Amino acid sequence: MTFSKREYFDKQVEWVLERLPKKVRQLLDEIPLHVEDRPSHRMIREMEIESDEELCGCFVGVALGERYERNQQVPNTVILFRQGIYAQAVNEQGIFSQIELRRQIRMTILHELGHFHGLDEEELDQLGYG
């Protein structure tokens, strides 16, 4: 991924973050948000996905409801993957949409924060964040 494409993406993340509700932004003060180009080869294998473009984000850590059940050895982190989110912002005709990119960034952040709160994929789908 080119430097300019990374820079553009990161500016869009900032734009989205500024427009999230205050309580969500406050939560992100407690849970670091990292942005990476793509998931690692190890993560792709472990999650059994075929392409790095299939994954837009990931929550790493222990969900709120499991905190006292499990020893937390890894800090809670939300990771956004540029490659996967960019892929979602291109329509079937191959046309990129800034509006869709921002929507996908927002949805991915909220999706991963949902995992932090203990929601599974089915529950997130029901809420429209699948």
CATH architecture: 2-Layer Sandwich
Task: Give, in spatial order, the strands making up the sheet with the most strands.
Answer: 1-3-2
Principal-axis shape: globular
Please work out how many helical segments DSSP would assign: 6
List the helices and strands in order.
Answer: HHEHEEHHH
Can you give the mean pLDDT?
Answer: 89
Strand content: 5-15%
Structural domain count: 1
Distance separating the two termini: 26 Å
Question: Would you kindly provide a written description of the structure presented here, covering whatever features stand out?
Answer:
The protein is mainly alpha-helical and 130 residues long. It has one domain: 2-Layer Sandwich (Zincin-like). It contains six helices and three strands; from the N terminus they run ααβαββααα. It has a three-stranded mixed β-sheet. The model has no long low-confidence stretch (mean pLDDT 89).
